């Protein structure tokens, strides 16, 4: 395909994309296909001869769209948002054309440099303590773009593991001595994301789930008790993950208390704010991040709520050397003259290769500006409160947890888990909106999240009407 | 930014991309910027008010391009190729617009389904044994797109670790008993990629580097001896990585021999063909993959040599359940009705989230067709042989390893490592071409790889002339 043909193809795709997004309201949010549906629509083998791009374009509606869950439909209220914006899509086109691999500074200096600067921009925008930023810390701290929050948690856990191996073992690179790995213990809230539990599994270490208070927050005293118990048993507490904005219910752990405990007990503190971190661009939500100065690493996903397409998970580390020590293997073919003068991000992550992802962060922050980004966050939180108000007026329902960000957790009052599950299934089967449940301390909860940047008050009213209608349909007595 | 503005912006970007790639030959392949250069060119903080997209566009040449190493310049001969093609860029635009997260089948069925089918396409195209494919194996085997080969190796290692935990421990989810992790031993060639060593480090297990024969191949007998020695010492050999096409010199381990050893010793065999695997689309190179039926997992990167933009690292597993068992944590909010009827790819990888990456594989395979993909591979290998012939006619140089794929490893004959290093530095400083070295058994080697899809015979001649000129400049005596 030459440049002229790409111009035609790319132009046709731009038109397709604008039509898709401008009319996404008309599509059924959840598809109705069955597993294996695509095998009946396309051949079992790749073609030997190339096909025309026009034929591939035609297959988007025929093959792909029937099986798409439309995450950017204004009626998608499941999980949490994933970002989608025009500036990010255009930035990714440029990233695809430059197509450099930024594993070392020298392998494409712009790729590393723009990441250093835009993560300082972003850190300042959410008022992150200056020790986390590259500029103010003189390069001791700094930010990096990971693929996902799961990877950020695992990177932090492995770095903490190496910190403790250095402290306890004669050779920090092999974990041979003294049953070391079996003694390591990490801690998180019982409300934290499954990827935290998984990071423990992958790292081969114990992960204790700390019970939460009535607002589903992990508290300092409970954490402290668990750590001290393990120490008394001869184990080595080494790593804590605090969650700001849990996936279940958007609960915020008591970071300030937890930070004190981690400092007293000399344990690595990682803060996972995957979804809610974006809200810290707005001053009025920064009370939720008090204590961040006591953390060792922090992560949130601009690819969730900050208009930067996936994947763009921003992570900051207070002492980047600790990550480098855990990840550094330095083969000859990757050595270069500038080592030590700028970060080589391959030592900050699990993969070796990396795309030029900071372009989309740069495009989004410049073209929207912080003002529009704040507006976007505030609008979505306001819509969640609007929904909350609608719910409160119908006494068939109860709100289960405080509404702080763009998520409302509710259930049918005085009904069993099974009844609530029936309601959720019925709503999803009707196909007008999509929501998912959570289970909190054995209670079945329905989650309604404001996700799409297209969602407006009218859509929220439609969503609420849909929930009411499905409820009346299922439980007509009331 | 609304759809009309995106149309303008996207159209301008298409024009920029075609101009960049059509004229990439004119750019200096390596930049001359110094660490920190970008800080002087852009503000220290994100703007409060949004900027015009036109101003962002202008900054690409002012801010970004001076710091780009042009991987797609026909004069880029460093590392191995990374892919860049128009069909892949357009597919990524669509992926960015749909912007679904494909962690479960239900979260966007098309995302999972197209991945299942295109990885079967790709597996068939390289004649992978049918046990690895989803269709022929009835879903026991199957392919998945990982971000990088590093991740594929780590996924395989962690899965193997769980296989052995199930065998040796009462609770395969915790590695508490009997100093288990300290006893695990993995093996790879001393020539294998640094990411293999790193996978061992991250997994907390020993990784033995097996010496290679005169052609830099790991041989079955050497592996067998190492495994038996460890068994005799009470350790648990559990995992072997064989490399097809090493990064240093594109050496191919003796897979068939290694496969036998792994079967006899009951050890997980992972095959890493990150670069060279793409060449198996051509029948004449399949002799190098004999023995693949004895492997447990296999990986190569279409994002290297197969025209699919990064990231698209294809991995196949013979028994996908073994990966799921290592990675599965099943939170309530991700449960859905179709579980068990289609893969939930979140259990096959380290991150939870995942983009719709199979679109670019589908677009590339359809629009090029297998015929053009084979042609691309063959042209690049022929160019390497052309370069080899040029070198052979100049007796100042020697070819160090057999030229099998698109890489030529050479050095100044009868000169010290230091002299060879001087030559490489001089060549890169002159800035016309970019190459990197390797160190093989203490010998400093210069690597010349055919990378860009734009490289033609004329460019190879220019590269060779440049190497000759730099040599004459440095060592005029000869």
Biggest interface, chains and residue tallies = A-B, 148 and 149 residues
Which percent bin holds the helix content of chain A? 40-55%
The quaternary structure here is homodimer
By CATH's scheme, which homologous superfamily of the domain at 100-355 in chain A applies?
Type I PLP-dependent aspartate aminotransferase-like (Major domain)
Radius of gyration of chain A: 24 Å
pLDDT < 50 runs, ≥5 residues of chain A: none
Principal-axis shape of chain A: globular
What string, H for helix and E for strand, traces the elements of chain A in order? HHHHEHHEHEHEHEEHEHHEEHEEH
In round numbers, the mean pLDDT of chain A is 95
Report the major sheet of chain A.
7 strands, mixed
**What's the end-to-end separation of chain A, in Å?**
63 Å
Strand order of the largest sheet of chain A: 1-7-6-5-4-2-3
Number of helices of chain A: 14
The counted number of beta strands of chain A is 11
